[in-house]
Amino acid sequence: LKQHYCFEGNHTVKYFGGKSYSRNGLQQDCQFLEREIVGQEGNVPETVAMLRSVIITFRHGDRSTLYGDFSGQITDCTPFRDSDRCAFSDYTDLVNSNSFDTFIVSDANLAKFQLVPHPASCTKGNLTAEGALQLLKLGNFLREQYTNVGFFTEKVNGGLSGFEWNLKVYSSLYARTFQSAIAFISSFIFPMRNFFSKAYVNASDNEQFCFSELCKCRALPLMEKVYSQTRTSFFENAFGNKTMLNLKRVLNVLQIKNLKDPLHFLDVVRGRYLCRRLPLPCYNGTCVKYADVKEMNTLVSARDYMMFNDFSQGPSLFRRLMVAQSTGILYSIQNHIEALLRASSKSKYVHIFSGHDITLRPLLFVLGLDHTEPPHYASRLVVEIYQRNWYKSHNLNLYFRLLYNGEDRTNELSFCTNRLFNNILCPVDYLMYFIKSQLLQVANVTTLDAICDANLGIL
């Protein structure tokens, strides 16, 4: 697909109704398609190490809000720019083509979802056309990054014997994550289909991608419920009555019942107004201002950090929740590395997880990476696994990098600080040791059962 980038460095993005907001704020909030994707993925010289595997976990693209009655509220989610409307039409044609249809095989539990979102309508919690294009654009970017460093190649040690490719794609059981996975595959994997006979999209019945008994946690639903019930009172206690009154003021403007938390406010404001490029709402002479959005976004991040680091009664519920929710992806990474150690030196791995903000959030917290909550649409966490001594297949010598939204964060990992090879790569042994021996210690426990016993989880 030909991509169109029409944003020429203007300092503001013009909105309907004459409103304008700073470019950086809205680009970050909504990930508008005119925003250039940048990143350091794959930029390790081949002379240093050979890329053997990439594990990509991303949040779905732009969606409509989860709250409120949609009748008469938002009538149009058509892409804003002509070029993006054309790109979505081309994308729809591609996904509906015979060649793509024969390449994609989806789990039966995902078959109920359409492959692409509606080009114009807005429906509660569902992906927009621009949301699909965000993942298509990300897939294009990452494919180019990895092609440029020789990851997608048929050559092995100068010969033409070819690699054995291990491709796995997972999506949670939501239309927005499935359609995001399809969009990403269409630009990241499908153009390289000579390497892959099929792309299977596997279903995960949970947002944390836990596939084994080792990460099953029967207390999670109760812990999540208690967290959602207590976070608003924590917000009021942490930031005071004045801030809480301001929250109630802006929530009242939205005129949606049962909204209590700043996360509710941010979800509605982005899904109905900001990311639709519409003016912020007013009601009875009171208006939501962009300063309110910035303030609530900052305070949500601050609240979650405070809750994670609250040891007033031992490790907090939120800290234990984050550890329990992180085990699915982290145990998959552990299994991934162990499989790579057993595999032929001619094998390469690509694993993709299409998830949610609550998929990324636990990983960022337990790994100790500063970030803004919630992770924006199409946020990505990438683990790259490299092999040194490429021509000595008997000595795999594996290293890794971890990148969040294109930024190399490897040196910020406590178990990698000052341990990097060539100031770039961290030995996978340190990551494996963290997952096996240190992860549960983040919650001051030695077994997952100590968190996940239904009677202990909320204590």
TrEMBL record:
<protein>
    <submittedName>
        <fullName>Acid phosphatase-like protein 2</fullName>
    </submittedName>
</protein>
<comment type="similarity">
    <text>Belongs to the histidine acid phosphatase family.</text>
</comment>
<dbReference type="Pfam" id="PF00328">
    <property type="entry name" value="His_Phos_2"/>
</dbReference>
<dbReference type="InterPro" id="IPR050645">
    <property type="entry name" value="Histidine_acid_phosphatase"/>
</dbReference>
<dbReference type="InterPro" id="IPR029033">
    <property type="entry name" value="His_PPase_superfam"/>
</dbReference>
<dbReference type="GO" id="GO:0016791">
    <property type="term" value="F:phosphatase activity"/>
</dbReference>
<dbReference type="InterPro" id="IPR000560">
    <property type="entry name" value="His_Pase_clade-2"/>
</dbReference>
